[in-house]
Amino acid sequence: MTTNAINKGWLNPISITTLLILIGVSVVLYVLQIINIVGLAFLILFSGLLASSIRISDQWERAVVLRMGKYKGLKGPGPFMIIPIIDSVPTYIDQRVRVSAFKAEQTLTKDTVPVNVDAVVYWTVWDVEKAALEVQEYQKAIEHITQTGLRDTIGKHELSALLQERDKIAEDLQQVLDRNTSPWGITCQTVGIKDIAIPKDLADAMSKEAQAERERRARVILGTAETEIAEKFELASKKYTDNPVALHLRGMNMLFEGLKEKGSMVIVPSSALDTMNLGAMGGLVSLAKNNEANHP
């Protein structure tokens, strides 16, 4: 069974300490002539076997134990012991959430636009037994299947949908990956699309298209405003037609607003003066301006 999981071997602080203590005791017994050379060799061999049977797995790991090549069970976290020679621990599988980056280069969308997409997938091993026994090098398998799934997803969507609906596409891809990895005892929790790169020529064309669209909308808004203004003027003209006094007062107000600004010059047609009887007012205004100039 070959996987990409960790293979720590049997060396750990507890096993090394146990081995040194037992060898030291054996040497002392031999020096004191309590045991002979054969006993010393036996004790050293026993010390090595006992030390090799002591294993340690970290809090986030589970050790896969095989007995004579057959699956025996899982051990850990913490220290545990196995039967020397008969049992073996080929792998320690990490159960923490891990992240794998992958990309799809020059992949065609549904509308035949080549894009480069960078994405990441967050996954974890929830069933150590399946991950150890059902798939070889499960991390590489996940990377390949995510890349294939990403290419398939890109081919099913048009470029506009790919750019505007990243979250939905990532969610769909996550569900596809989870269905494929679940039989391995692995779940893909989240898929994130980091970047979508499109050809420069296409990006320039899209920018021009967006600019033209904004200009079109601006002109439509301006035309709509002109139409609304014309409608308001039409209503006002009807009001003034039925009420000449209101028209006269409006004309006087317009003239006053124009003349009250210091230094302003207003040109009023004679017909307007005749219509609104503003000739006398025009003369008075002119006289006031001359007096103001002569008496600063």
Describe the protein's architecture and organization.
The chain is of the alpha+beta class and 296 residues long. The chain contains ten helices and eight strands. Strand 6 (98-108) and strand 7 (114-125) form a beta hairpin. The longest helix has 43 residues, at 200-242. The model is unreliable at 278-288 (pLDDT under 50).
SSE arrangement:
Elements: H1 13-31, H2 37-52, E1 54-57, E2 61-67, E3 70-75, E4 78-81, E5 87-94, E6 98-108, E7 114-125, H3 128-133, H4 138-155, H5 159-164, H6 166-181, E8 186-197, H7 200-242, H8 244-259, H9 270-276, H10 279-294
Antiparallel strand pairs: 1-4, 2-3, 2-5, 6-7, 7-8
Helix pairs in contact: 1-2, 4-6, 7-8
The number of helical segments is 10
Could you give the order of strands across the largest sheet? 3-2-5
What is the molecular shape? rod-shaped
Give Rg in angstroms: 44 Å
Largest sheet: 3 strands, antiparallel
Residue runs with pLDDT of under 50 for 5 or more positions: 278-288
Structural class based on helices, strands and sheet pairing:
alpha+beta
Summarize the structure in short:
It is rod-shaped and about 135 Å long. With about 300 residues, the chain is of the alpha+beta class.
Summary tags:
296 residues; alpha+beta; three-stranded antiparallel beta sheet; 10 helices; 8 strands
